[in-house]
Structures are given as C-alpha cells and as structure tokens.
Amino acid sequence: MIVVFLGPPGCGKGTQAKRLESSRNWPQVSTGDMLRAAVQQGTRLGNEAKAYMDRGELVPDAVVIGLLEERISRPDCKAGLVLDGFPRTDVQARALDGELKRMGKSVDRAVYFEIPNRQLVERLSGRRTCSKCGTMYHVIGNPSKKNGFCDRCDGPLVQRDDDREEVIMNRLEVYSRQTAPLIQFYSDRGILHRVDATRNVSQVESAIQGIL
Ligand code: AP5
Fold first, then answer.
1. Which of 156, 128, 157, 154 is nearest to 140 (CA)?
2. Residues enclosing ligand 1, CB less than 6 A?
3. Which of 80, 112, 119, 166 is the most exposed place for a label (fewest CB within 10 A)?
4. pLDDT (0 to 100) of residue 59
5. pTM of the predicted model as reported, rounded to 2 decimal places
6. Which pLDDT score, from 0 to 100, does residue 134 have?
7. Segments of the chain scoring below 70 in pLDDT
C-alpha cells in the first residue's frame, strides 16, 4: 500500500510515519530527512538544498523528484511505503503519479493531518531531536529524562535550524500557498482521509490504523 501523509510542518507526519514503519514494516520515505542527510554529508545537492531549507522555502521540484524516484525504486518499498513530506507541490504530485504508473502502482490513501497553526508553532519551537539516533522529543510535551541528552542512546539533543520561530512562520506560509492545494487534489480522487492531529500521538495512530 502506498500512503501519502499530507499536512503542515509540525502536524506529526514524521512521528506517525515512524510508528507505521514499526507496525507495518513500510519504510518512512521522508524527503526532509534525505535532504538533511545530504546537508550533513556536505554533498553538492546538500549544499544547494541548505539555503532553501534554512529560509523555510521548498527545495526545487527537480531536486526532490530525483531523490524520491531513486528511493521508491529500492526493493524495501515493494510491499508498501509511507511518503512523509512528499509531494508538496502540484508538479511533485503529478511526477509521483507518473513514476508509480511506470511501476504499475498508484497512491492508495492520502492522510491529511488537520491542526491549527497556533499548536504547530508550539510543537516545532519545542522539538528536539537526537543527533545520533533521530529520536524525537518535545521540551514540554515529551522531554528527555536526561536534560539535553537522548534517553535511548545518550546522544546530544539538537534543535533543527528551521525550527526557529521566524523560519517556522515562513514554512507555514509556504505550506498554505504551495502544498495545501494538494488536499483538493487527493480529495478529487476520492482517496483523502482527514485525521484530527490535535489529539495525542496514540489517538492519532489509532485513527490512521483505522483508515488503513
Ligand atoms: P520536513 O523535514 O519534511 O519538515 P516538515 O514537513 O516541515 O515537517 P516536520 O518534520 O517539521 O514536522 P512533522 O509533521 O513531521 O511533525 P513531527 O512528527 O516531527 O521538511 C523540511 C524542509 O525540507 C522543508 O521546509 C523544505 O525546505 C525541504 N523539503 C522537504 N521535502 C520537500 C519537498 N517534497 N519539496 C521541496 N522541499 C522539501 O512532530 C513535530 C513535534 O510535535 C515533535 O516535537 C513531536 O514530538 C511533536 N508531536 C508529534 N505528534 C504529536 C501529538 N499528536 N501531540 C503532541 N505532540 C506531538
């Protein structure tokens, strides 16, 4: 099954994609994670992407489409996958359709995470991530027991460069202008499912399992 997670920055797409990866063994395909890995490795693609990401802008379509196509062609995506943060534009949605069609597949479900902006700013500004294993925390909602360090692997917790308040505001604006129209795109296909993303992580997970 091919599932698209759609929703604004901070709505919980990554958190839920990781849970589905564990429960169903469908890989989380996150273009944001792929781009951050390229930035960290200092590749040419990473250097190009960094300037956009630091401003909260979208990385050009051609760059992310190339990354995505390579990723979903790998054998671990055969049984199913969760697309977390892709597509984000009409061009990306159509490119995804084209690539899946070549593979004899199509998007089965689009899950839209509904949540007001006020809650997103709180979630993103308080997010901390382990720099070693990627476990996510929140300074108020889900703090680590060892201040500043990961409970799982002791790695240092870091704040993402784009989780500063001024960048968050731009990411939300970019989302409503460039990505929100995809809600209609998938609704028109009859495969859009809405989830109340204001509820706690387990409740959101149950709602998604119900949809799938
Ligand atoms: P990306 O990494 O995809 O970021 P995003 O879409 O902005 O989403 P986030 O990862 O910030 O949030 P999320 O919805 O995954 O929430 P999370 O689970 O982490 O993209 C980053 C950048 O890369 C983009 O700005 C762009 O530049 C570039 N990019 C990526 N893909 C691209 C594409 N396709 N095209 C072009 N450019 C692209 O949760 C957030 C916080 O909330 C955490 O602290 C978490 O613990 C907490 N939380 C989660 N769920 C709950 C809950 N139910 N209740 C309470 N707290 C919760």
1. 128
2. 9-15, 30-32, 35, 52-53, 56-59, 64, 85-86, 88, 92, 123-124, 127, 136, 138, 141-142, 162, 171, 200-201, 204
3. 166
4. 97
5. 0.95
6. 87
7. none
pLDDT at site 141: 87
Report the distance separating Cα 75 and Cα 88, nearest Å.
Answer: 24
Nearest ligand 1 atom to alpha carbon 18: 18
Max Cα separation, the chain? Answer: 49
pLDDT value of residue 32: 96
Q: What angle do CA 69, 75, 78 make, to 5 degrees?
A: 85
Write out pLDDT tens, residues 82-95.
999 999 999 999 99
In this structure, the number of other CB atoms found within 10 A of the CB of residue 122 comes to: 14
Compute the C-alpha angle 121/122/126, nearest 5°: 110
Residue nearest to atom 47 of ligand 1 (CA): 123
Residue with tokens 């599932």: 3
- CA 33 to ligand 1: nearest atom: 2
Which position has the token pair 């028109």? 188
Q: What is the SS3 assignment for 165?
A: helix
Taking residue 66's Cβ as centre, other Cβ atoms within 10 Å add up to 12
Say whether the peptide bond before residue 87 is cis (omega within 30 degrees of 0): yes
Contacts of 46 (CB under 8 A, 6+ apart): 35, 37, 38, 39, 40
DSSP codes joined into one string, 48-83:
HHHHHHHHTPPPPHHHHHHHHHHHHTSGGGSS-EEE
β-strand partners of 113: 195
